[in-house]
């Protein structure tokens, strides 16, 4: 049965990074909310193991954001499968869990990708926080608030070049959404509480779960 409470899922791309991801985790801890981190496989290693373990300890979820930042929509099924699988294996090794969701680099998709990758694809309400010094914390928070709705997946980045005020944007966004009656859940929990099978939309990406 679907949950009657307003829900949203914070998600973060392009990490992990020992300094920048930690800044995001600190804000999440302060506000007592969970998130889902889409990890880049080549960054998942012994050097970042501690921050990945902290995500898991806090109750956050980790997911697959391919091996590197290369778009996959113009490469072969073999390359897609290789990069996806290497990332799954790295996450399993260093996080101790199986990633259940995939987000394509640059949100670029193809039919080949949908056929080669066996996980549900997720996009999200964009904070446009890859725009560097062109956007402030307030800008980023307002972009998300403009697209928010019950069941929204929110797409932000824990890792981008400095200046990168997304942690500051969270200090604006999280209290405002709580004031509006939203609860923050992981991606898996969002589907569970909405009573929706994440595998039910093959060939497209989830932005809202309803």
Automatic annotation (TrEMBL):
Top-level taxon of origin: Bacteria
GO MF term list: hydrolase activity, acting on carbon-nitrogen (but not peptide) bonds
Pfam families cross-referenced by the UniProt entry: Polysacc_deac_1
InterPro entries, alphabetized: Glyco_hydro/deAcase_b/a-brl (IPR011330), NODB_dom (IPR002509), Polysacc_deacetylase_ArnD (IPR050248)
Location of the NodB homology domain: 6-185
One of the protein's GO biological processes: carbohydrate metabolic process
Name of the protein this chain belongs to: Polysaccharide deacetylase
Source organism (scientific name): Gracilinema caldarium (strain ATCC 51460 / DSM 7334 / H1) (Treponema caldarium)
């Amino acid at each position: 049965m679907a949950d009657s409470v307003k829900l949203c899922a914070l998600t973060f791309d392009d990490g992990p990074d020992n300094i920048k991801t930690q800044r995001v985790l600190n804000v999440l801890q302060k506000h007592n909310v969970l998130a889902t981190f889409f990890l880049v496989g080549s960054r998942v290693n012994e050097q970042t193991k501690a921050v990945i373990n902290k995500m898991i300890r806090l109750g956050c979820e980790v997911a697959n954001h391919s091996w590197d930042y290369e778009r996959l929509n113009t490469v072969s099924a073999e390359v897609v499968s290789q990069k996806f699988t290497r990332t799954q294996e790295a996450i399993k090794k260093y996080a101790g869990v199986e990633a259940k969701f995939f987000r394509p680099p640059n949100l670029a998709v193809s039919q080949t990708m949908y056929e080669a990758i066996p996980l549900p694809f997720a996009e999200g309400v964009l904070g446009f926080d890859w725009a560097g010094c062109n956007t402030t914390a307030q800008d980023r928070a307002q972009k998300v608030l403009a697209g928010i709705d019950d069941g929204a997946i929110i797409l932000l980045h824990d890792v981008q070049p400095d200046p990168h005020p997304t942690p500051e944007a969270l200090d604006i966004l999280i209290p405002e959404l709580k004031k509006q009656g939203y609860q923050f859940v992981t991606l898996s929990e969002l589907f569970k509480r909405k009573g929706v099978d994440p595998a039910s939309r093959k060939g497209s990406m989830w932005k809202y779960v309803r």
